[in-house]
Specification:
about 400 residues, alpha/beta, Rossmann fold, 10-stranded mixed β-sheet, about 20% strand, binds S-adenosylmethionine
């Protein structure tokens, strides 16, 4: 089996950077290990005319007609080349932790519909392996029918003949400099040797010892609490039935084979994290220093605010204080697309040279995601560079998973 990859929702190429351990030379030349051949990529940003992420992808990986800048829903899926691994961090706005629950629309939401694009590609191309990433809330979404969205996805994959492993991974638990919790979903088709090896193991063994996540992101094997969910056609006749009726709690680590899902809340065997202080630059330009201290003190402080809900109820919204400035001896908090705007979630650090407070720099935001320095310095504004990093992932995670997938393919 060839190690060919299609990268969907490619953004600035986080999966590819990880899979091929990509670096930038001092002159800005991309140095890519040929671990996997990326045969097709798609990236299109619906909210802006400029296509900064796609431009960055092209600049870093070269102009190619196999890099497409079109709405994925407009693409004829048959035109996508055959591949062994489909990867992608699909848009998460509908489930995003950056939004309040009342805005959450789940899988039928505007952007959530993009799941059906992945489904269509899998249906037409049937790649043996699939690796997806999303916010961890996906497992619980939507709030009114817990677990429905992920249940629908599992059933889609089951209908197409895949087994699925998933794991919520907090990058900081495994040696990275950012607390970023994301669910990674690995699906493998019945036709693979890997599938046949895996199904001989118990669900507990797959989750804690043998599965792709257990080998790359180790956990203690002392889990007591398991949950099961049955989404077989015997119980839910079709996808609409799952969508209408399914409700369950999916825990952070799981496996689904033949429509039966088991999950557990596993505990990571942590590695020493990198700290925010370790990624800071020296001699930082004046433009990154903060001018509106009072505003930040207010935003980061504890407060109680009178509010009125959509239904007209008055209530008191309260939030506690958070570290201001951010602690340099801990990993960073999760970067959002709004990073470095005047916002409670924006990081504020005490500069190492001047002891004055400042935003993180675009390079520091890249380091928090394990991208090479200056990766997004391809002609876009600083604001867009932070946005790209808020959307991207910690590339060290696909790097580790890619190594394991490569070994799995070697045995096919
Ligand atoms: C969560 S981000 C993935 C980021 C990526 N993993 C990276 O490393 O940069 C989702 C991406 O999907 C893109 N996108 C949203 N809607 C799309 C559509 N209809 N067709 C293609 N891409 C889309 C967004 O522009 C965004 O870059």
């Amino acid at each position: 089996m060839k190690k060919t990859v299609v990268e969907l929702f490619a953004g600035v190429g986080g999966f590819r950077v990880g899979f091929n351990s990509v670096k930038l030379s001092k002159k800005g030349k991309t140095i890519e290990k040929p671990n996997f051949e990326f045969v097709w990529a798609n990236q299109w940003e619906p909210s802006t005319k400029s296509q900064d992420a796609f431009d960055c992808y092209q600049k870093r990986f070269g102009q190619s007609r196999n890099h497409t800048n079109e709405d994925i829903s407009k693409i004829d899926k048959k035109s996508i080349p055959n591949h062994s691994v489909l990867v992608g961090g699909f848009p998460c706005q509908d489930y995003s932790v950056a939004r309040t629950l009342s805005n959450e629309k789940g899988i039928q939401g505007k952007k959530g519909v993009l799941w059906w694009q992945i489904y269509e590609i899998l249906d037409v191309k049937r790649p043996p392996f699939v690796l997806l990433e999303n916010v961890d809330r996906l497992l619980k979404s939507p709030s009114k029918q817990r677990g429905r969205d992920f249940g629908v996805m599992l059933r889609c994959l089951d209908d197409l003949g895949y087994a699925v492993e998933w794991r919520v991974i907090n990058a900081a638990d495994y040696g990275f400099a950012q607390r970023r919790r994301r669910v990674f979903i690995f699906a493998y088709h019945k036709s693979t040797n890997y599938y046949n090896q895996m199904i001989d193991n118990s669900s507990e063994d797959i989750i804690m010892k043998k599965g792709i996540f257990a080998t790359e992101f180790r956990v203690y094997d002392n889990v007591k609490q398991f949950r099961a969910a049955d989404i077989r056609p015997e119980i839910y006749k079709d996808l609409v039935d799952v969508s209408d009726k399914f409700e369950s709690q999916f825990l952070s680590s799981g496996i689904m084979v033949e429509g039966i899902a088991f999950s557990a809340n596993t505990e990571p065997i942590t590695k020493k994290y990198k700290t925010l202080g370790q990624v800071l630059e020296r001699n930082v330009a004046e433009k990154y220093y903060i001018k509106n201290h009072e505003k930040f003190e207010y935003l980061k402080g504890s407060k109680k605010i009178d509010r009125v809900s959509i239904n007209g109820y008055k209530y008191v919204y309260s939030e506690g204080s958070m570290s201001y400035p951010d602690k340099l001896d801990l990993p960073a908090r999760t970067m959002l697309t709004s990073e470095s705007s005047v916002n409670r979630s924006t990081h504020v650090v005490k500069d190492l040279d001047t002891n004055r407070l400042r935003f993180i720099t675009p390079i520091e935001s890249e380091r928090l995601n394990n991208f090479p320095d200056e990766w997004t310095n391809t002609g876009m504004t600083d604001k867009r560079r932070y946005f790209m990093m808020g959307n991207a992932l910690v590339t060290g995670i696909p790097e580790k998973l890619g190594k394991r997938i490569s070994e799995i393919i070697d045995l096919e």
